[in-house]
Amino acid sequence: MAPITIRMASWVLAAIGAAALAFLGMSSYFFFYGDSYLLRYAGMVVAAFAIAAAADAIASKIVLEPDTMHVVSLMRRRSFPRVEFVSAQVDQGVVVLKRREGGWLIMPGTGQDLLSVRNTLHAWVTGA
């Protein structure tokens, strides 16, 4: 069985890209036209945050392998075994996985349809 990958929706990537371009434009204004070094440094910091946000959105994904789920972002990769979970459901606008020992794992938002993400995760948990 090939791994299933759930990535950010294209509209989310487009919105984050547009916001990053706006922040880069604002930061370049502060960098080139700032009267003090503090404004120039602030422009560089804002530009770094914009680039990091866009890179994180591109790198973020959920990978479902036959026995393991990997939640990947730019700075972190978490892995969970399939036997740890009982079911998946949508609760208050987010997809959550119910743990066998109790408690919930809140899945990161992807911009995809919540029910389709829930159905994919529930099928993976139950082995269907």
Write the layout of secondary structure elements.
Elements: E1 4-7, H1 10-33, H2 37-59, E2 61-64, E3 68-72, E4 77-81, E5 85-91, E6 94-99, E7 104-106, H3 114-126
Antiparallel strand pairs: 1-2, 2-3, 3-4, 5-6, 6-7
Structure description:
The protein has 128 residues and is α+β, with helices and mostly antiparallel strands. The chain has helices spanning 10-33, 37-59, 114-126; strands at residues 4-7, 61-64, 68-72, 77-81, 85-91, 94-99, 104-106. The protein folds into two domains: 8-59; 66-126, no CATH class. It is built from three helices and seven strands; from the N terminus they run E-H-H-E-E-E-E-E-E-H. Helix 1 (10-33) runs antiparallel to helix 2. The chain is elongated. The chain starts with a strand and ends with a helix.
Uncertain segments: none
Strand content: 25-35%
Q: What's the helical proportion of residues?
A: 40-55%
Write down the overall geometry: elongated
Number of helices: 3
Number-wise, the strands total 7
Q: Kindly report the oligomeric state of this protein.
A: single chain
Q: What's the rounded overall pLDDT mean? A: 91
**Structural class of the secondary elements?**
alpha+beta
